[in-house]
Amino acid sequence: MVRPHLLLVVPAVLLANTASADFYSHRYGGISLLDSELSGFCSQVQSFVSNLNSEEQQASARQCKEQGTGWKLYSGWQWTPFLAVEADLRQNPDSSIRFDVSNPALPHLGVHDRVSNRMGNLFFVGHLPVSGNGLSVFGKLGGGFWLSQITERQEGEVILQVRMEDDSLQEVVAPVSAKLSENDSGFHWGYGAGISYRHRNNWTLRAEWEVFPEVGSDKLRAEYDVQTTSLGWSFHF
Question: Rounded to whole angstroms, what are the CA distances from 127 to 33, 75, 208?
């Protein structure tokens, strides 16, 4: 009598043989369009704005953005039906916050902070062929570096004490306009999963979901998780 667990081996072996028969080792390069959420950015920067409040100063957030579209370029080498290594360079959507500050010296100050983010990654990718027609599901694990820049624009009015010719002091309202920027970088890890379709060993279409925890820093107003869904196309060479 054949044991039940041995019966499970037969379809697995047939699947592996079918995938190997239709597979050839190849390198690939492609592009993906990203739909990303910088989860946690708005909650943290709104907390930052709230902490600016005091008995003599009022601060309030007007608008915050932590979602948008981006892109990535990727390249890799799949040397078996089940394993590949892949690198990518991506531009995530900008995040931003607008808030107002007022105090006795500043009747009004509008602040607009915009944070741009780029990432480079290296992944190990595991594929599980679904059938012999080029369809497979995959998971990926890896990490890389992030590089971000915060740009702050300030527009408003300031009250200045001006000494007059008769040696008296007079308050004068003057416009304020400034632009500041600062860079920061760091390392991160990430993981993801997806489904791909390989067409006649020429090109591959794929959809995937990825997560990169703890990107950003206090210098950039917030540390957040990048959560991305994407649709990509790659050619084989």
Answer: 21, 16, 13
Please give the DSSP secondary-structure letter assigned to residue 56.
S
pLDDT per residue over 31-45, tens digit each? 999 999 999 999 999
Locate the domains of the chain by residue range.
11-130+143-236
pLDDT digits (tens, 9 = 90+) for 43-65: 999 999 999 999 999 999 989 99
Q: Quick one: tokens of 109?
A: 């100050």
CB 150 within 8 A of CB 100: no
Q: Which amino acid is at 81?
A: P
The burial of 173, by beta-carbon neighbours within 10 Å (0-12 exposed, 13-18 middle, 19 or more buried), is given as: exposed
The answer to whether 180 and 220 have CB atoms below 8 angstroms apart is no
State the distance between the two ends of the chain, measured CA to CA, in whole angstroms.
Answer: 49
Q: What is the DSSP letter of 51?
A: T
Q: How far apart are CA 158 and CA 180, in angstroms?
A: 18
Instruction: For residues 217 and 213, give the distance between their C-alpha atoms in angstroms, rounded to a whole number.
Output: 12
Instruction: State how far the Cα of 29 lies from the Cα of 12, in Å rounded to an integer.
Output: 30
